Known about the structure:
The protein has 12 helices and 12 strands. By secondary structure, the chain is α/β, with parallel strands linked by helices.
Amino acid sequence: MSNINWRGVDLNLLIAFSALMETRSVTKAAAKLSIGQSAMSHNLSRLRALIDDPLFERHGHQMIATDKAIELAPVVEQILQLVTNEILQPDDFSPRSYQGSFRIGLTDYAELLFAPTLFDAIRQAAPHCQLSFCNIDRNNYQQAVETQKIDLVIGSMADLPREFESQYLYTEDHVCLFDANATGLSSPIDLAHYIQTPQALVTPDGKLAGNVDNQLQQQGFQRHVAVGSSNFMTIRHLLTGRNLLCVVSTLMAKLDVFNDNLSQCRPPVNIPDFDINMLWLKRNTNHPRLEWLRQCVHDAITARVNELRQLG
C-alpha cells in the first residue's frame, strides 16, 4: 500500500473514466463533463500512467476499451455510486429501521425531568434503537462528548467552546420546597423565616454555598446550610418529615417522585433564572441521524415542559 502513488489519485479521473466508457470518445466525454478536449486527453494520460494500461485505443472515430478497462468499469461505477449516495448525498435517516444506539448526556436535573419522556418519544419513533443516558455536568461534558461518543447534551451550560453548537430549549426559575408540618412554615415565606430555617442544598460540586449566600451576605444576612447533595432525589427524600427547606427549580418541584405532599412558594431572595440548552459538536450538525434526534428531543422536551407548567 505504501508503494501506491496516492498523490496521483483524483476522483475526477474516475469520473473521466466513466464518461469515456459510456461515450467511447474523448470529444463526447469532454462535452458530457463540460470540459475541454485537451483536459479530457490529459485526464486519459493520467489514467494510463496511474493504471499502467492504455485503457482505450483509437480505432477510427471510436475508442476501444482494453480488457483492463472492461474489468475496471463495474468497480469504478460502484465507487462513484458509493461516493454519490453515501458521502455527497446520504440517504435520509429512517428511524423506523434504525438498529443502532443514541447516546444522550444529561445533568442530574435533566435526567430526572426528561429521561422517561425521551425514552418514550425516541423508542416510539425508532423502536429498534438502543438508548444510553450518560451523566454529565458543566465541568465534564466536553471531555465526555469526545470519550463517550455522546450525540447530544442537555443542561445549563454557558460560555460554550467554539467546537459546540447549541439550541435554546426553555428558561427555568426557582421555588422553595419544604414540609409544612415539620418546619412550621406556610406560604409565602418571608426573609426572616427563610434565614432561620436550616436548609438543604443541591450542589453538583459539593460546595455548601452559592450565589444566594453571596447575595445574603451583601445584605448583612446569612443562612444555615445544614446538608448538601449532588442528587436531587436525596434532597427531596430528606425534606420529608424534617425541619429543612430547599430552593429547587420549579419544574423539579412539580415531579411526583414521592407521595410526600411538600409545600412550595416563591423564594424571598432574588435567584437568577437559568436557560436549558441542547448542545452538540459543530462538526456533526448536518448528520441526518443527529438532525432527526435533535428535532425529536426538542419536541419531546418542549411538550414535557408545557405539561409540567400546567400542573398546579
